[in-house]
Fold:
Amino acid sequence: MDGRVLAAIIVALVLLGVLALMVSAWRRRVARDATVGPLPQLPEPRPVPTEVFRLLYVATSKHDQPLERLALPGLGYRSRITLELGPAGVVLDVPGEHETFIPAASIVGIDQTNLTIDRVVEPGGLVRLSWRATEHVTADSTFRVVEQSDRARLMDAVSDLITTMATPVQSDTRPAHTPDTVDAAPTHDDRIRTQNESES
Structure:
């Protein structure tokens, strides 16, 4: 057998072995992250967005652990996506996947970074959205936003949403059936007049 053919066969076998290991590792990770628990369901009717962004979804990792991937349903693969933002929260629409809904109350922060799984860019080149996937798991989803104006608009809109959710709702705490006005305390003259009327 020609030496070049033998070398090509060996290289092909090595590559197949590496690919098999990668597939096996990915399946183990998906099985592990399936125990995280069900993600929030997209409400019906679908929330009406106030802002829509077209951007590149990069990855989702454990909070503050950018190299520890979370293979959550619908967020396993890098792709160009549509991000819808409104009072109800965020909807991530990944082609070929079910939409991922992040309720407004689950969003805990948004900032910029330059590092995540398999991706290193210029400082501040990635937008990182931090959110509670479940009660016990906080995730960081990272996005590549090319246009600086879109990046600022996205961060401002999410920051405003977080502030809105953190602001306590003002309510009337008076007991039920309490009148809007309280009668003024009787004066000295009122008490004397009342006493005279009772004696007569």
The two ends are 133 Å apart (CA to CA).
